[in-house]
């Protein structure tokens, strides 16, 4: 005898005195949304990950993944396709295993892409502590010294805290340690950690205030707001800000400016603050964020129709992209070139703008959002130049559904795409279409 008891989030199935809990279709949709949020490349990587992970040949996790990605089946339909009959209990167990696999895959990807340096340094600290516990003091401190140098270079204050803590803890066994100097370094690092915590509060308060003003549809002087929130946390010296800190503040205000089409408010703050910190003592160690800031400022100036000034910042940005053995050149070059071309297009150098972007048609290894922006900008250039055939040929590359483009590039981008397509068809005389 089978009894089904409905709950708020799912159902309990009682069968042969065993109790099974499984989720209804609303929860199934969440799993589909997670998988759909992956890029095409990530989806392929995930399926490859499942293939390597599967020990049984009859595992159905790949089948379930494909069903979730490509169709909107109900639980009953999925069960029929997977098992040839209704087997909700087995489907729930499979769902659970798939969810665990997604979590593992996402965690592993994050470790590889974002936190590899942190993990490496944490392993070094753990290794150093093991040697110190075994009274191999010289080896332990050599590892800690190496970790300290790298953590300082990348401003990893949490890692440095563990390094100094360990060094102080075992300083009694190392006659070469200057304990007083070590304590000074520890306290200086504590100040940096406190500053990071304060800045985290500042970011949150700025974001919340901007959201509040947006909901009330009232204007806000962004520069005054930023200064106010920094002062509330005791940050009065802008030289205390790192490039990373400034970048995070600019990103928040930049998003707000984009939503409100108001870039005048943020320009003065961005340019003035950059002038203060461009000679920051650790600017060479913060190259990535330094490049990001120059791009954000160049974009603000472009939006405010200051094309020559925008190109000046982009030139500086490009010079930094070539530093450190061109470490970040390939990462930033597509969006750098896109903004350069936009400046050209709106300052009577349209041919230069078109030539620059045409080199990216069918180019591989370009981030999907940047590639979509490049294609759409190039279509606009062709349209402005009344080269409708070229525009039509390039717009034919947009063969996905609108929902796909909304997921990848956002609803505003998708509306822009639809508008330029409508205008293009009108000028081509395709009124019925």
What does this structure look like?
- A hairpin with a 2-residue loop joins β2 (about 10-15) and β3.
- α14 packs antiparallel against α16 (about 330-345) and α16 (about 330-345) packs antiparallel against α17.
- This protein starts with a strand and ends in a 6-residue tail after the last helix.
- The protein is built from 21 helices and three strands.
- The protein has helices spanning about 25-35, 40-55, 60-70, 75-85, 90-115, 115-135, 135-155, 155-170, 180-215, 220-230, 245-260, 265-275, 285-305, 305-320, 325, 330-345, 350-360, 370-385, 390-395, 400-410, 410-425; strands spanning about 1-5, 10-15, 20-25.
- The longest helix has about 40 residues, at about 180-215.
- It is globular and about 85 Å long.
- It has about 425 residues and is mainly alpha-helical.
Key structural traits:
disordered N terminus, 4% strand, three-stranded antiparallel beta sheet, mainly alpha, 433 residues
Summarize the helices and strands and which ones pair or pack.
Blueprint: E1 2-6, E2 10-15, E3 18-23, H1 25-36, H2 40-53, H3 61-70, H4 75-83, H5 88-113, H6 116-133, H7 137-153, H8 157-169, H9 179-216, H10 222-232, H11 243-260, H12 264-277, H13 287-303, H14 307-321, H15 323-326, H16 329-345, H17 350-358, H18 368-384, H19 388-395, H20 402-409, H21 411-427
Helix pairs in contact: 6-7, 6-8, 7-8, 8-9, 9-10, 9-11, 11-12, 11-13, 12-13, 13-14, 13-16, 14-16, 16-17, 16-18, 17-18, 18-19, 18-21, 20-21
